[in-house]
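We close this part of the discussion by returning to an individual protein. The amino acid sequence and the backbone structure tokens for this protein are reproduced below:
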Amino acid sequence: MRDQEPAPDHPDRPGRRLSTKETAELLGVKSETVYAYVSRGQLTSRRDPGGRGSTFDAKEVEALARRNRRESAGSSGSAGELSVRTRLTLIDKDRYYYRGVDAAELAARHSYEEVAEWLWTGTLRPGATFTAPKASVAAARRCVNGLPEHSDPVDRLRVAAIGAAAADPLRFDLSEDTVLGTARTLIPTLVAALPTLSPGHRDEGPLAHRLWPRLAFRVPDEASLRVLDTALGLLVDHDLAASTLAVRVAASARAHPYAAVSAGLGVLEGPLHGAASGLAHRMLVDVLEEGDAAPVVADELRAGRRVPGLGHRLYPGEDPRARALFALLEEMPQAAPALAAARDVVTTTARHTPLHANVDLALAVFTVASGMGASAGETIFAVARTAGWIAHALEEYGERPLRMRPSGTYVGERPPQPLPE
């Protein structure tokens, strides 16, 4: 008769050590996630002499489990909002940081791909490039080509992500290396799936160079490409914006990266999020046609709308992303008229409300000056933010599944109610 294994002691008994399997079960995570907790300093492990695996202090594990349960219920910030721990982006005193590094300085000195790698891994990879597999691009393009001609770029990007997912048999592998591999191929696939406006381009080189012919008809100069590349780096992440929260909810349910990105793209289409730069673009075009911002601003306010491109709830002062882009736009000779129109808008509005220009207004100056359409800023935003969404999905995959599940407060009729007739 085979000896029975001894029943495990209760976790609260003094000195009790838990196996990796027991720890994973208590935390409700995979074994790989247990070791991720160790690497982050949230758990300590010990390898017993002669033992075949690591063991963990039961009290420490139980404390982490309690902390995770509190977080899954949603901890409240000062405004009663959901708070989620993240190591990616800090916004503080009109500046923001990627993994502790000033994001504006990082984007000014490094390519979009290098900034993305830093956010994903905390390691700078000079000369990093992203390559799209032919099969992935072909699948994405087939899906995009089936859309109506008037489809907007975010529609195309969302459908492209779905097509690329269907072509990837490893999409359900949520290990870090595989997710990073997906990120490095998904972003260039999304760009390659967009229709081109200028002929003679080649899908190679930095991502900004490949994105340009999808946004503008004219051949770019170096100053224009530098603004586009920097804009992509500046927009990689911005803490828990609405689209990023949607991505983390999807990742919490263990949706694969393509699906998580699709969730972000769905939220991005809202006029209060990614589409804001398009509103600012149209406003600047109107100011240039009128030759004066005053009547255009008056029309916006008369219609009950906020003046687009001004103010940001996270920055009482200047939006650092706008500041960085405006400095580069000064080096684009063709941007002078649009810059003057933007300054006119800010000055006109400041007579009553001293609001600073935000990144949407800076993007609008760039897209107007480059002869791009009103949706170009939203396309730039979506492509750039995909890298940040992947970073947040990776963080969430390392947390307890389904922790992003708030409880509803029922305010309807109290039961029992009679059946409707």
Remarks:
- The mean pLDDT is 89.
